[in-house]
Design a protein that fits this description.
Blueprint (H helix, E strand, L loop, with lengths): L6 H8 L2 H28 L3 H10 L5 E2 H7 L4 H13 L3 E6 L2 E9 L1 H21 L5 H12 L6
Antiparallel strand pairs: 1-3, 2-3
Helix pairs in contact: 1-2, 2-6
């Protein structure tokens, strides 16, 4: 089977290089997400979104549902479904916020903390492996260059 040419390469040949660079970033992002999804499922029984919830909830003893939502790229209803699923697996707890009865506090259980730590190691392995062809200086340069991108005018 013949490999297809990434769209970013075609744009680079025929169009503005800035659009090609944006497209390449999206292609790389998709490659990462495909790998994360596979490895998290295979090694930990988690989806990439479930890992995202766990890693963001692990930043404090308890996190408000609305604050967790700000850290994720999913809808309120999708977060509620994910939290319900994670709670059913014994990985998180949800309880009413005593300071705001409309709010919900989310916390990782001991099992959730353990699984989160294991999956975070997998996450790091994938990223370090993907960046292994770069020196620290080159990675720093990518960071500095990406920091200059400003999608909001």
């Amino acid at each position: 089977m013949e490999e297809t040419t990434p769209v970013s390469s075609m744009i680079r040949q025929n169009g503005p290089v800035k659009i090609a660079a944006w497209r390449l970033m999206m292609e790389k992002y998709q490659d990462f997400m495909t790998r994360f999804e596979h490895e998290f499922r295979t090694r930990h029984g988690l989806s990439a979104n479930e890992f995202d919830v766990l890693i963001n909830a692990s930043t404090s003893a308890q996190v408000r549902h609305r604050d967790l939502l700000r850290s994720l790229v999913i809808s309120r209803s999708a977060l509620s479904r994910l939290l319900g699923k994670l709670e059913g697996r014994g990985l998180v707890t949800q309880e009413p916020d005593p300071e705001d009865h409309r709010g919900v506090l989310v916390a990782l259980t001991e099992a959730g903390q353990k699984l989160c730590a294991e999956a975070a190691e997998t996450n790091g392995e994938i990223i370090i492996s993907a960046f292994s062809g770069l020196t620290d200086s080159e990675a720093e340069e990518i960071f500095e260059l990406a920091s200059k991108i400003c999608p909001v005018g």
